[in-house]
Design brief:
The protein is of the alpha/beta class and about 270 residues long. It has helices at about 20-30, 50-55, 70-85, 115-140, 170-190, 215-225, 240-245, and strands at about 10-15, 35-40, 60-65, 90, 145-150, 195-205, 255-260. It has a 7-stranded parallel β-sheet, sandwiched between helices.
Length: about 270
């Protein structure tokens, strides 16, 4: 492990959104590469395949509503108290319309102020708050790494022909918030470089949660919009994630890595 360029051994990671469909897979990759991972979330969705990491005190779930500044502060403080440091923050959590499988009104003339505010806060505001709260712990550590999870809709518009008449469209708040995430990442990279804090982004393409109940015709249409003519598998994000979280990316900051099968290159 120690000779592995992507080793996470000895690193403590706070991973927001780690209980999501993609988050759980990425959390397991970090655990397999030696990290201690803390997941602040409202619901613990880790199954028995994570038990060995819990028993080894490598995986820690903290009940936390990331909408709340006080609860967010408390989650970082609890992480520091338990492990004595924080090395990496992965901002993957999202809530509101278009996030976490939740639909909202997407017709521009029908979007309320409340829907807009919640959707943008659930993609961009949550990342701002978590970044703000982790900085003092990185300073104690002499540095750290931030990895912000974006979206292909941060750099391209949804093709609404893909959705058809039965699938809810991706709402305007989601792409607008995720585009802000990419700019906020660049801002953090510039503002925090003197503190030895790196900030990079990871853009997933289409990574739907495919279940027996999924509309496979929709999945096929979505996959056909990528050069590789398919949607992504969750584990295909792990290589880019490990690069950005580990010392393998020690001279990378302000960078965005896209894992989308070529969808955003057309």
């Amino acid at each position: 492990m120690a000779n592995n360029l992507f080793s996470m051994k000895g690193k403590t990671v706070v991973f927001t959104g780690g209980c999501g469909n993609l988050g759980r897979v990425m959390v397991k990759a970090l655990l397999e590469y030696g990290a201690e991972v803390v997941v602040p979330s409202t619901t613990d969705r880790f199954d028995e395949t994570y038990d060995e990491y819990r028993k080894a005190d490598k995986l820690c779930f903290i009940k936390c509503d990331l909408r709340s500044t006080d609860e967010t502060k408390a989650a970082f403080a609890a992480t520091y108290e338990k492990y004595g440091k924080i090395d990496v923050l992965v901002n993957c959590a999202a809530y509101g319309g278009g996030a976490g499988g939740k639909a909202c009104e997407y017709r521009l003339d029908k979007v309320s102020d409340e829907t807009w505010a919640e959707g943008v806060d659930g993609t961009l505001g949550v990342i701002f708050r978590c970044t703000r709260e982790v900085i003092p712990y990185f300073e104690k550590n002499g540095g750290g790494a931030i990895v912000n999870i974006g979206s292909m809709y941060a750099v391209m518009a949804p093709n609404f022909e893909v959705y058809g008449d039965t699938i809810p469209w991706n709402p305007p708040t989601y792409g607008a918030g995720k585009a802000g995430v990419l700019q906020f990442t660049r801002y953090c990279a510039s503002a925090l470089a003197s503190k030895n804090i790196r900030a990079n982004s990871l853009i997933p393409g289409a990574f739907p949660n495919v279940t027996p109940q999924s509309d496979m015709a929709f999945i096929e249409r979505l996959g056909n919009k990528a050069m590789m003519k398919r949607v992504g598998k969750a584990e295909e994000l792990n290589g880019a994630l490990l690069l950005l979280c580990s010392d393998a990316s020690s001279f990378m900051t302000g960078t965005t890595i896209t894992v989308d099968g070529g969808a955003t290159q057309w």
